[in-house]
Amino acid sequence: MPASKSIKLNTGAEMPTLGLGTWRSQPGAVEHAVEYALKNGYRNIDTATAYGNESEVGQGIKKSGVPREEIFLTTKLNNPDMGRPKEALEYSLKQLDTPYLDLWLMHWPAPMTKEGGADKSIDWLDTWHEMEKLYKAHPEKIKAIGVSNFSVEYLKRLLSNSEVVPAANQIELHPSCPQQEVIDLCVSKGIAVTGYSPLGSEGAPLLKNPTVVKIAEKYGVKPGTILISLQANRPKVNVLPKSVTNERILANATIIDLEPADVVELNQIAKTEPFRACHPSWAGWGNLGFTESV
After folding, report:
1. Which residues have C-beta within 8 Å of that of residue 77, sequence separation ≥ 6?
2. What whole-number distance in Å separates Cα of residue 55 and Cα of residue 195?
3. Could you give the percent of the chain with pLDDT greater than 70?
4. DSSP line for 68-126
5. 3-48, pLDDT tens digit by residue?
6. Among 192, 145, 166, which Cα is nearest to 4's?
7. Strand partners, 46
8. Could you say which of 33, 89, 128, 141 has the lowest number of CB atoms within 10 Å?
9. pLDDT tens digit sequence for 81-124
10. b vs e for 150-188, b when ≥16 Cβ sit within 10 Å of the residue's Cβ?
C-alpha cells in the first residue's frame, strides 16, 4: 500500500499522516521546532500536558503565521488530572492559547496522584465518560476525543461500555514493537492509530539495524526515512517523528512508498529484537494489558 498523506477520522476530519512529536522536547527548543515545522509544511502538531511544553507549542504556532484552522493540534489529559478532566481541558486550552483542540486524548489508562504513584481511587473508564460529556457539551472546544497507550484488553473494555468510539489511539510503533493486533482492532472499529517513537526513541537504535539499513540502501534513502515511512505505509496509521533541529525536522518529512514485502520484513525485526522505549509499567498499573515487547 502506498504511503498516505492523511487519514480520515471517524468524525469525518482529516488528520495529516505526518506530525511533529514534542515528547522530551524542552521549552525554548520546542517553540522553534513547532514554528520551523509549520513553516516547512507540517500541519499536525502533537503535545501533552505531561510534557510541560504546551505554552511553548502554542507560541510556536503563533510565530509560524500558519492559520490555526490549517493545523491539526493534539494534546493529552495528564494522568494526575484524571479526576478533574474539565479543569485540565481548560488549562490546556489556556496554555496552548487556542480556542479548540482538534484531538484530545487520555494519555494513559492509568490514574496517578500528584506525587507520582498509582491512584487506585479512580477508574479510567469513569474519566473517559467525563471526556465524552465534555466532548458532547463543548463541540466548539473539542473536535474529537481519543486515547493513547491503550492495549487490546483496555480498548475492548472501553468499546463495550461507552457511547463515543475514540477517534484515535496513539501507541508506540516501530519495527521492534509493531503492535499489529492493536492496529487490527482499531482499524476494525474505525479508530485511527498514531505511532510515536518511530525510530525507537532515545538513541534511535533501529537506525543501525541491518534490515533497516539494507532497505534504506535499496531505496537510496536514510534509515530514518524507512522507519518513518513504514508507519505511513500501514492503513489508518499516522506517525509522529520528533526533533528540535531544523535539518532533522526537514529530513523526517520525507516519506516514501514501500513495497509490501519490505513492510513485512521490517515488522519481523520484533521477533528477534523486541523492545519498548516507553514501558507501560512506569505508571504503577502493571503492563496495562500489553503483551508485546514487554
Report:
1. 49, 85, 88, 89, 104, 105, 106, 107, 127, 131
2. 23
3. 99
4. GGG-EEEEEE-GGGTT-HHHHHHHHHHHHT-S-BSEEEE--S--B-TTSSB-TT--HHH
5. 999 999 999 999 999 999 998 777 679 999 999 999 999 999 999 9
6. 192
7. 21, 74
8. 141
9. 999 999 999 999 999 999 999 999 999 999 999 999 999 999 99
10. bbbebbebbeeeeebbbbbbbbbbbbbbbbeebbebbee
**Quick check: helix, strand or coil at residue 16?**
strand
Q: What is the tens place of the pLDDT at every residue in 49-74? A: 999 999 999 999 999 999 999 999 99
Query: Locate cell 481519543: which residue?
Result: 146
Catalytic residue (one of 42, 51, 154, 196): 51
* 232 burial type by CB count under 10 A (0-12 exposed, 13-18 middle, 19+ buried): buried
The span from the CA of 2 to the CA of 270, in Å, is 23
H-helix or E-strand spanning residue 168: strand 168-172
Pairing of strands 237-240, 192-196: parallel
Cα–Cα distance for residue pair 102/169, rounded to 1 Å: 14
- Do 71 and 38 meet the contact criterion of CB atoms below 8 Å apart? yes
Whether 36 sits among the annotated catalytic residues: the reply is no
Burial bucket for residue 102 (CB in 10 Å: 0-12, 13-18, 19+): buried
What b/e string do you get for 53-66 counting C-beta neighbours within 10 Å, with b at 16 or more? bbbbbbbbbbebeb
Kind plus residue range of the DSSP H or E element containing 170: strand 168-172
For residues 246 and 36, is the Cβ–Cβ distance under 8 A? yes
